[in-house]
Amino acid sequence: MNERDALARRERRVERRQEEILRAAASVFATKGYAQATTREIAAAADMAEGSLYNYFSSKRDILVAIISRSPTPVDRLMVEAEGMTDREGFVHLIERAVLEPGPEQPWIRTIIKEAWTDDELFRQYQAGHMHETVIRVAGLIERGITAGWLRPMDPVYAAQALIGALMASMMPLLRHTGSSEDPGVRERAAHVTADLLLYGLMKPNGTPDV
């Protein structure tokens, strides 16, 4: 193995270990909160010695910043199947998955809710970094829907921001463990209502009340 290959292997090994630490830290932060969590608890959750933790991150704050900057979103989880979305039924299915099914990124999002929302610096980092990229990706999907003719013309970036905001608000009870998605009938009805609101709004097509 040449020096370049050896360096690449070391870098991949470091990246994998960093991801393991971040997943462990997100779980600890989501459960205890950032202020109450300790690096010892994070190291234990990552199955490593506390001293070894500092080979990858310089501080607990550094770990939190990495979580905020790298955190996946529920939108990311659904982007692959959203690429093939071409009609309302596909949109309903996507909403049902996004709003009512817990995903592996749940601890990451709970950490963001708890910490970035009250820390302006962290929130700006998240909004300017990962969230900006997500908005651009969703805007691309909306633009393709407009081109295909099943979505009406609109500003795709503003539409993406509104859509992501609505989805995150709808997911909040699930992320906070205050909502339940056990009843398939409830899931289906909620998905259809949410999809109708996002696709058509509250007004009737002609905008006039019944007489």
Account of the protein in words:
It is a single chain. With 211 residues, this protein is mainly α. It contains ten helices and no strands.
- How many helices does DSSP assign? 10
Biggest sheet descriptor: none
Q: Strand-residue fraction?
A: under 5%
Q: Tell me the series of helices and strands, N- to C-terminal.
A: HHHHHHHHHH
Report mean pLDDT, rounded to a whole number.
77
Helix/strand class: mainly alpha
> Care to count the β-strands?
0
Point out poorly predicted stretches. none
Question: What is the terminal separation in angstroms?
Answer: 81 Å
Q: Helix amount, in percent? A: over 70%
Q: Choose one word for the global shape.
A: elongated
Radius of gyration: 20 Å
In short:
The chain is mainly α. The protein has helices at 3-32, 39-45, 50-53, 60-70, 74-82, 88-100, 106-116, 120-148, 156-175, 184-200. Helices cover 72% and strands 0% of the residues.
Lay out the secondary structure.
Elements: H1 3-32, H2 39-45, H3 50-53, H4 60-70, H5 74-82, H6 88-100, H7 106-116, H8 120-148, H9 156-175, H10 184-200
Helix pairs in contact: 1-2, 1-4, 1-7, 4-8, 5-6, 5-8, 6-9, 6-10, 8-9
Label this structure with key terms.
211 residues, mainly alpha, elongated, 10 helices
